[in-house]
Amino acid sequence: MAEKPIRFGIIGCADIARKLSRAITLAPNAELSAVASRSLDKASAFAKANNFPPSAKIYGSYEDLLDDPEIDAVYVPLPTSLHVRWACLVAQKKKHILLEKPVGLNVTELDKIVEACEANGVQIMDGTMWVHNPRTHKMKEFLNDKERFGELKNFANLRFWLGIGHRPREKSKNWMHSCFTFAADEDFLKNDIRVKSDLDALGALGDAGWYGIRSILWAVDYELPKTVTALPGAVLNEAGVILSCGAALHWEDGKVATFHCSFLAHLTMDITAIGTAGTLHLNDFIIPFGEKEASFTTVSKSGFTDLVTGWVPVPSQHTVTTDLPQEACMVSEFARLVGNIKATGAKPDPKWPSISRKTQLILDAVTTSIAQGSKPVEI
Amino acid sequence: MAEKPIRFGIIGCADIARKLSRAITLAPNAELSAVASRSLDKASAFAKANNFPPSAKIYGSYEDLLDDPEIDAVYVPLPTSLHVRWACLVAQKKKHILLEKPVGLNVTELDKIVEACEANGVQIMDGTMWVHNPRTHKMKEFLNDKERFGELKNFANLRFWLGIGHRPREKSKNWMHSCFTFAADEDFLKNDIRVKSDLDALGALGDAGWYGIRSILWAVDYELPKTVTALPGAVLNEAGVILSCGAALHWEDGKVATFHCSFLAHLTMDITAIGTAGTLHLNDFIIPFGEKEASFTTVSKSGFTDLVTGWVPVPSQHTVTTDLPQEACMVSEFARLVGNIKATGAKPDPKWPSISRKTQLILDAVTTSIAQGSKPVEI
């Protein structure tokens, strides 16, 4: 069934919208139809700089774009503090929403947005690109493979370290670590919206920690942990915005995961996932080193040589090529869902708001735990 | 000054002693002179199986070996619970000590051993092999390079997250993560000395966590952290021996490090060290994948392409070759120090007991924090 491409409008000319404009152009089932800024000149310059087609409409207000009946979906790259207001309005205008992350300042805000989407029958998806990379699907195949990665056996040992639980009877245990850091410059740390308490108030946790949290949830099939405990050493700026922090997540069946996020350390984006039978590593999970191919490393059932002087087997690298960059894969998947809804009256896919919500829920727990001096927060 | 090789005796035929026997054979300034077991047959079989020279002496008791005036140094691979007794006796017999890790059940035990060594003028070094790999020296050059890795600037922000400290004024922050896990089989988890409360009572923390702790101290030039906080989710066996745990270390100047160790997850041995200007990664820090060469990855001052679709620069891999395997480098360095003492009456090098002690101190703090339900423990 050949369908018309989904017509995208963009409200706000954030830097990230440049990348998304190209992604919409590249996605075969999407087209760049309009851009709005509070300034018509700015919108016009943005459209020109980002190769919008001549047919694209330029708006000097977000409302005008939302009133355009020829727009199917809206990409919202506005500061987090504006999400609840504008995303709800997008939904009320019956337009599908591709919403930049973090989706809200807290889960209550997201719930309002999701409620508006459900009431209006529109799809919502957050702008987490890496989960759409074909590499990510290949990595998940590894994590789901009991032979190569191992099992997530239950053993109710979680509270044993507190002295109030059962002693473990089974031997398996999964562990995962994720981090995303980058070294922001003086200008960023002074002026960027991500260090402002009235804009992207979740700071490094919302901007960088979002990915670590998402990667952990992704690895465990989005099973929520039982508790979230902030790690010591969180750094906040004068306005109380998080510049660096981390947390440990743990599940009742014994799984443990930690993540670290920071604006204050060199660019690093790692996943290490350890099962009972195998280990997965990669160091570019959010933005692959290059667009056209991306790699990860796995090793299964490895042990040592007789005298413990080497590994058998050693890890092997897997490279996955992609025609479309991951952000265009994201746009394409989102447009596919929107196309289905338009063509068949299908219901929006609840998976996407559900995983946004779980990510935000953990984010909220981390901020609570930091505020409470690293007390464990129950989910 | 050509000197005679240092004559090594080994007390106990532990599995690890096979590796060390070969290392002593390979080290040009060391020779295998004797082995002792509580059983003469066992010692004899060990010597035969491990290519001891015909001149090597076989003893049916540890004491007899220690009384041999033709032994300069003794390698002690006995279970941790026996260290304080035997290492003190080795020192009293004026023999230098290469002591398997963990060095003691706690720092008090180590202090007794070190005291005995000092009183008798003998060198002590623990059996941590990886720090002697030429790769490790190359990695340290990277970590010490302000251009490539960045600075460890002070900013007294540590307690800010508790709401009682200063707000940070400087932007740098170092972060590090290390882990060592391996999936022990049923037999190990039932019978190995490392799961027995009367033998290697520190379990996975002593056997695997030792390395993570050492790697963190190594990276920060052995500066002790201010606090150590166990991560949630430690697993203990029926006898109370740790099978899996982790901790977060933090320093008053804002550095943070975490480590994880386990007998319950697939073989993994990572270091990730993140400075303000660069990142170091390796996945085989304790036992390199192969003997003859070992690699690590670094990337400095990396950022993104214009549209944030790739990295510039991407990480690069560094490979360091070595003629001697790392355990032979360790033996050789230890024998060099012993040779110096013998030839010139030099004092034993205090660096080695000092870094053993710091490692043990953190180990003790982790066990205390676990026992106290993850309360931060001051060092």
How are the secondary structure elements laid out?
Two copies of one chain form a homodimer.
Chain A: E1 6-11, H1 15-26, E2 30-36, H2 40-49, E3 57-59, H3 62-66, E4 73-76, H4 83-92, E5 96-99, H5 107-120, E6 124-126, H6 134-143, E7 175-183, H7 186-191, H8 203-219, E8 227-230, E9 235-236, E10 242-250, E11 256-262, E12 264-274, E13 278-282, E14 293-300, E15 303-304, E16 311-312, E17 316-321, H9 326-344, H10 351-371, E18 377-378
Distance between the termini of chain A: 44 Å
The computed structural class of chain A is: alpha/beta
Query: What's the tally of helices of chain A?
Result: 10
Order of helices and strands of chain A: EHEHEHEHEHEHEHHEEEEEEEEEEHHE
Oligomeric state, counting identical vs distinct chains: homodimer
Number of β-strand runs of chain A: 18
**Rough outline of chain A:** globular
Could you list the spans of chain A in which at least 5 consecutive residues all have pLDDT below 50? 153-172
Strand coverage percent of chain A: 15-25%
Helix content of chain A: 25-40%
User: What's the gyration radius of chain A in Å?
Assistant: 22 Å
The greatest interface between two protein chains, and residues involved on each side, is: A-B, 90 and 89 residues
